[in-house]
Amino acid sequence: MATAEGLSEWFADEVVERGDDFYFSWNGGPAEKATLIRYKPESFVRFRWEEDEGTKYFFEMTIVIDEITNDLSLNITDFCEKGDEEETRLYWDNLIENLQIKLGAA
């Protein structure tokens, strides 16, 4: 969940990992830097974009397994500017759809 290889499968076209710094690029554009700020293997990963340094903003992906049904879900926490909520929601919906296709779950 927090490897460059895994993230490049569905999150970004290319991901380069250098220590706690990850460089994400899409469609051949310039890389955007995010720093890994928390990580628990097979549970969650939290990043902060370089532009959000000095703020409390982050984005987090958490895997949750229902204790009763054993259903697996991916919860996303992200911050965006006021008025960008719908665009951000669509962005994550598309990424999750790509992940489901990769996993054969769609």
UniProtKB/TrEMBL annotation:
This is START-like domain-containing protein. It holds the Pfam family START_2. Coiled coil: none annotated. It comes from the Bacteria. InterPro entries: START-like_dom_sf, START_2. It comes from Cloacibacterium normanense. Residues 4-105 form the START-like domain.
